[in-house]
Design goal:
By secondary structure, the chain is mostly helical. The protein is built from 23 helices and two strands. The chain is 66% helix and 1% strand.
């Protein structure tokens, strides 16, 4: 039985599974705060034990007596526990892959774990541990430098493992800094013993990070993008967790099919613009129509209110009065635009536009990449009805389900609106159609290049080339997009989830909306009020399907006979 969890009392309450999930979430996040040291074996073992206990306790609950909503919640929590357990197993395997590049790393990780566990520090003993670690790091670096000089591969795991190891050591430097600052100055003996060996180790580790990235991972050229492909097995497991019954290869073909459709539509729009079949020329014209410096915020404001008015006039979704008032706007820094060349959204829309300190060429690319037509097709994705309305609802309806976050729900919702607004005629001119098609093409390309990269069939440079040549990105924006995709802050399915999640919601709308069934407003409100989960689980809730102990992941949501 999990530590101090009276599940019988929780299950007896009217809310049942919501109360159980709230308790699980509180304890899960508490453990995450108590054991924050990434890659720590102690952390993995404690989280694994917690998950095992909860799995057994969950299995003992009276599932057969539950109503539909509780059954879905039970299934979602069970799948979350299983997914996190497998993630810890993969983390352990990844750590083993890096082990030969990380001499003495476990003892250094243990220092911060000991502090978190309130173990009394031994300054003289710690100084010796730091000195041993420094010598080990320097010796390993020297040995690797000799291998590189001889033309021998530095590590059998290749560039991706070296890149991962560099990130791990960089995180360790930060954790050791927090460990040092906790004791230094407060404990005179600690400072006397530890200050010099700590600084020497810190310098050795920082130098080692640079060596791993530049020499072993091959990132001497700052423009070169190195990532860490997860492989087919991890992709298949992630798709199963998301209840997506398609293989990575099938999804790539879907992305290519949708990409071809977008290309055809771009040609049609180009003809309307007088550019014959030259969609590149038409896109160039669209890119040249941008706001002058200082005017982009006002354009974003006007487009936001235009989208809200359109939704209300067509009764597509409920927009609460506070939702119209509560969003905010910020401008993105030049540094941040290196990895986020376009808008970001949520409660705050973060607007990309050139700043005065950018090099001239980067200014021109940012202007062209954030032109009026592209911006019009972005604002509704980020604000209303997209991510801001989504986040507004998440805080108010079944917030406990945020534990079951999936990009197929989060990004799929916003992408569905792009698809639907296109079908409803939201773009009024060929230029506006080009703007919407550019972003739709971009989402299709994301499916192809992100999955292909993680399968090992495309390099990062080939991904950049695809965005430039097939989608029409500016070169620096394409590099920023690929760097963001593979920089480690997104899970491997995130970029795929935009289009695939949008197609899932689109398919569900075809099934549920129509005469004698739901209205569009009822359908969209229902999605927002159920909160985040795999779209197949949402479908089971909205259709009243029979829910067994295993949530059904067999929904083939794409009718191959239906044109996009």
């Amino acid at each position: 039985m999990p530590d101090c969890i009276p599940l019988d009392e929780l299950v007896a309450s009217p809310d049942r599974m919501p109360k159980v999930i709230e308790r699980f979430s509180a304890d899960w996040w508490a453990l995450g705060r108590r054991y924050p040291v990434a890659w720590s074996a102690q952390r993995r073992e404690r989280l694994r034990r917690f998950l095992d206990e909860w799995f057994a306790a969950l299995d003992a609950l009276p599932f057969e007596a539950f109503e539909v909503s509780d059954r879905v919640d039970w299934g979602l929590l069970k799948r979350f526990i299983g997914h996190e357990t497998r993630r810890l197993e993969r983390e352990s395997a990844q750590f083993s892959e890096m082990a030969s590049l990380l001499p003495g790393i476990e003892d250094l990780l243990a220092l911060e774990e000991e502090r978190r566990g309130l173990v009394e520090v031994d300054p003289a003993g710690v100084a010796e541990r730091l000195e041993v670690a420094r010598r080990a790091v320097e010796a390993r670096r020297t040995a690797l430098e000799e291998r590189v000089a001889e033309g021998v591969p530095g590590h059998e795991g290749g560039e991706s493992v070296a890149w991962r190891a560099a990130g791990m050591v960089e995180g360790l430097v930060k954790a050791l800094g927090e460990w040092h600052d906790f004791h230094a100055g407060y404990c005179p003996e600690f400072t006397w013993w530890v200050e010099q060996p700590f600084r020497a180790l810190e310098a050795a580790l920082k130098g080692y990070v640079e060596f791993l990235r530049q020499k072993l991972a091959g990132a001497e050229d700052e423009d070169r993008i190195v990532g860490d492909p997860v492989g087919r097995e991890a992709l298949v497991e992630a798709l199963e967790h998301a209840l997506i019954p398609y293989s990575p290869e099938e999804l790539i073909e879907i992305g290519r099919r949708e990409l071809a459709w977008c290309a055809e539509q771009m040609v049609l729009a180009a003809r309307k613009m007088g550019c014959r079949d030259d969609w590149h020329a038409a896109l160039e014209r669209v890119k040249s129509a941008h706001e002058p410096p200082g005017r982009q915020p006002m354009l974003v404001r006007d487009l936001a209110f235009e989208a809200i008015e359109y939704l209300e006039q067509n009764r597509l979704v409920t927009v609460p009065p506070l939702a119209k008032e509560g969003w905010r706007m910020e401008m993105m820094s030049a540094e941040r635009q290196k990895t986020n060349p376009f808008f970001l959204g949520g409660e705050t829309i973060v607007v990309s536009f050139p700043t005065h300190e950018m090099p001239h060429a980067d200014k021109r690319m940012s202007l062209r990449g954030n032109n009026r037509a592209f911006t019009r097709a972005t604002v509704q994705h980020e604000l209303v009805p997209g991510h801001y309305l989504q986040a507004f609802s998440q805080e108010r309806y079944r917030p406990y389900r945020r534990l079951f976050y999936t990009p197929f729900w989060v990004e799929g919702w916003a992408l569905h609106w792009e698809l639907l607004l296109w079908d409803l005629g939201f773009p009024r001119t060929p230029e506006e159609r080009m703007g919407m098609l550019f972003w739709r093409k971009h989402r299709c390309a994301r499916v192809v290049f992100s999955l292909s990269f993680h399968l090992g069939t495309m390099t990062s440079q080939e991904c950049v080339d695809m965005l430039v040549n097939e989608v029409g990105h500016e070169p620096s924006n394409a590099k920023g997009e690929v760097r963001r995709s593979f920089g480690g802050q997104y899970d491997p399915l995130y970029q795929c989830a935009y289009l695939i999640g949008g197609l899932q919601v689109q398919s569900l709308r075809r099934e549920l909306v129509g005469p004698g069934r739901m209205t569009d407003c009822e359908f969209h409100d229902a999605i927002l009020r159920e909160n985040t989960m795999p779209i197949a689980a949402l479908r089971a809730l909205l259709t009243g399907a029979t829910i067994g102990r295993e949530l059904d992941g067999d929904w083939r949501f794409l009718d191959e006979t239906v044109e996009p």
